[in-house]
UniProtKB/TrEMBL annotation:
Family, as annotated: Belongs to the methyltransferase superfamily. LCMT family.
This protein's record includes keyword Methyltransferase: yes
Gene Ontology process terms (BP): methylation; regulation of signal transduction
Residue positions binding S-adenosyl-L-methionine: R64, G89, D162, L163, E189
Lineage of producing organism: Eukaryota, Metazoa, Chordata, Craniata, Vertebrata
E.C. designation(s): 2.1.1.233
GO molecular function: protein C-terminal leucine carboxyl O-methyltransferase activity
Cellular component per GO, a single term: cytosol
Top EC class of this enzyme: transferase
Keywords, in A-Z order: Methyltransferase, S-adenosyl-L-methionine, Transferase
UniProt entry tagged with the keyword Transferase: yes
The protein, known as: Leucine carboxyl methyltransferase 1
């Protein structure tokens, strides 16, 4: 009988990172329950609304969701849906179902996350008809592949993989018919920051090498060298959650440079306070009426410590460098 492998620091750190998936899902579930934005599918991944979240947290999630969706939708429209999406560290995200409802579904939508997270999501999809219905409606052949760590249909594919193992990631995506010739948008939300700089650089370089026309949208922390940033790091460390890539989150410039150094042709970055100010202001005004915000300075501090950075390369001349807010 094989000896049991000791539980390592890496295992503990990975488990803490996996727990952030639940944090994001419950945070979004609460915000949508208050009417910040509509997401009829999040309820199938979070059983209850959970405890109350502070208004500045809800507004932060609003800016995150609206900001990322703005760039993603612009890319898909720009390619007239003749593209593919790869959501890296997707967690229990519901973007595939939103895009289906809004007639913005790409040729194929890929998701990648830890195998344990993927197993949970596949279980939810199998057992919740409103989720599985969309897969069935977009699947036209008999080749549906389903096991505990992967699900592959014509338009949606979810894969259990470690983003730090590039060769295995590449192999699995190609197995499920990733097309390097299609315009591709890659998403990562609070994912790269949990990887070491060399690990995340390897991932960005792989993407830049395999796709000739692509955009990478990255949402995560920024301005982490000031006192507010250090408190964020300390709070996560108490949960045994280390921001291994924090040194690349020092400024908007370091965020852009990481892409330009790994083969991407163009990069932009904005902190979330700026993004917040550039979102459609009629909807922002509606959202701000939902809850009274007493700590406006705290919201500003919070938004100034997150950013969206997007990078592109554009062999097909789709005008990707012009996509912005």
């Amino acid at each position: 009988m094989a000896a049991r492998q000791p539980f390592t620091y890496m295992d503990t750190a990975d488990e803490a990172v996996r727990a952030t998936c639940d944090d994001a899902t419950t945070g979004k579930r609460f915000a949508t329950s208050k009417g910040y934005w509509k997401d009829p599918y999040i309820q199938y991944f979070a059983r209850s609304v959970g405890e109350r979240k502070a208004p500045e947290i809800n507004r932060g999630y609003y800016a995150r969701v609206k900001g990322v969706n703005h760039l993603l939708d612009a890319f898909i429209r720009n390619s007239e849906c003749n593209c593919q999406v790869i959501n890296l560290g997707a967690g229990l995200d519901t973007t595939f179902w939103r895009l289906k409802d809004e007639n913005l579904l790409p040729k194929k939508f890929f998701e990648v996350d830890f195998p344990t997270v993927v197993a949970r999501k596949i279980h939810n999809i199998k057992t919740k008809p409103p989720l599985s219905k969309h897969l069935i409606e977009t699947h036209s052949t008999d080749s549906l592949i389903l096991d505990t760590q992967s699900l592959d249909s014509d338009r949606y594919c979810i894969i259990g993989a470690d983003l730090r193992d590039i060769s295995a990631l590449d192999e699995k995506l190609k197995k499920f018919h990733l097309n390097p010739d299609l315009p591709t948008v890659l998403l990562s939300e609070c994912v790269l920051v949990y990887m070491t700089p060399s690990q995340s650089s390897n991932l960005l370089r792989w993407a830049a090498e395999i796709f000739h026309t692509a955009m990478f949208i990255n949402y995560e922390q920024v301005n982490m060298s000031d006192r507010f940033g250090q408190v964020m790091i300390e709070n996560l460390l108490r949960r045994q959650c280390s921001l291994a890539g924090a040194e690349l989150c020092q400024s908007l410039d370091t965020q852009k440079e990481r892409f330009l150094k790994t083969g991407w042709e163009h990069a932009d970055a904005l902190d979330m306070m700026t993004v917040y100010s550039m979102l459609p202001q009629d909807d922002v005004a509606r959202m701000e009426c939902l809850e009274f915000l007493d700590e406006k300075e705290l919201l500003q501090q919070l938004l100034q410590h997150y950013n969206i950075c997007w990078a592109s390369k554009d062999k097909l001349n789709l005008g990707l460098s012009r996509l912005s807010f």
